[in-house]
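Throughout our pipeline, every protein is held as a single compact record rather than as scattered files. Nothing more is needed to write down the fold, since each code stands for a local backbone conformation. The record that follows is passed on verbatim for readers who wish to inspect the format.
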Amino acid sequence: MGLAVGLRSYIIKRIIYSFILLLLVIVVNYVIFMLMPGDPTAVLLAGFSRESPEERQEHERLLNELWGLNDPPEIQLLKYIRNLLTWNFGREMLGRRPIGQVMMQKLPFTVLLLGTSTLISIIIGVILGVYAIKYRGKIFDTISVISSLILSSLPTFWLGLLLLWIFVGELHWLPGARAFPEEWAGGKGPIPLSLLVNPTSQTLYVNVNINIVDAWNLFWGYLSHLILPLVTLVLFSFGGWLLLTRACMLETITEDYVITAKAKGLTERSVLFKHALKNASLPLITSAALSFAFILTGAIITETVFSYPGVGGWLWDAINFHDYAVLMAIFYVVSIAVIIANIIADLLYGVVDPRIRYG
């Protein structure tokens, strides 16, 4: 009973602190972008080079008035905080599409790619890290460490281009770009979906025509385009988890409780995974939580190489065109994800390590 009350009190406190932290992040985010060099109006007016100075000045005045840049800084800040807290991100500078709508279109692709690659990298890295400790000082440990360092040091664009050259250019096994076949653009996928109205009851219902062949074509259409960017990110990322797991395990493998567990006759696998890894997992939990939080930023280089329609490529375009509204929206969403990830990590600490108490 006392633990439940302490946990509830801890969660309430963390939510209050997190909201205050979110406000501070919003303010800092605003200040950083306001102090950044470059003028978004200059990008939009670059095509009007033949205008007279008076016409250009008038266009700049209209843009500043449209975006509220003529307001005092404190009014701009209050409007900015209000818009972010109400999830009103405005529109893109170039496409003029609602930022929230575009973000919801791109987030599923990024979450699928980055979420899957992060999960696979963690699983592979942790398992190989444990076995590197099991065979520490031997050839498996040496090869694991060296290969991790090499793969983590390779530029992701070079690794992606190498995979494209092998599996697309030479073997012709996989498609080279995008997240789905080109002929699916405009909603022309293998599963037709239509909204119909029942003429008698006047109710709206969804009609989906699907069969096994269409389901497989849909599944393989997305999977075949996902494989190469996924493999690129996994090859680049799993080595970091292997090295982190190995470093954490080195500190616990010689502890008394591990020696005692071995003396009781437990198998080495049980000792490594149930005792040593469990007590060495707190840094892993923190890193995993932050890794999943930052997947919302996308993989800029990898998505660009494979023309993947995720947040990463969108973020890169926003940087190039000084689209501060898009950048602010993305960093705001990432800040929320990081704050939530830290709360989840703190709660998992108590599950993994019973010595941690809340209250």
